[in-house]
Amino acid sequence: MNIAIGNDHAGTEYKYALLEALQKQGYKVVNHGTDSAESVDYPDFVHPVAQSVDQKVSDLGILICGTGNGVSMTANKYQNVRAALCWNKEIAELARQHNNANIVSIPARFVSLHECLEIVNTFVATSFEGGRHKRRVEKIKIA
Fold this sequence. Notes:
CATH superfamily: Sugar-phosphate isomerase, RpiB/LacA/LacB
């Protein structure tokens, strides 16, 4: 599985921990995020991740910023992206099962590193249920 990851300055520490954990599990992870704690503009790091998922170069994406909101809003502009803001593993599981989310957005200032790892591990390990959820997900696209 190919995973694209991106972050702003609020998510650098979490990104490094996720890179290490995911690579140990055998995932190919491409880093599109900043490697610094210096203030940056999050859209600059979201667009490469969202584009990678939108064009099916990456199977899933991970985005990390302070609240998770800005990165989700930016990523969801892409036609084939369903970015879900997840603050616990239960939300991450349901986002995959019911919404077929393909990008998880992490609010680094509101979850611990341990919670972040749980969220991402759950997100990556969970599959879309399909069925009645498939019909609903198909109604999301506008054009």
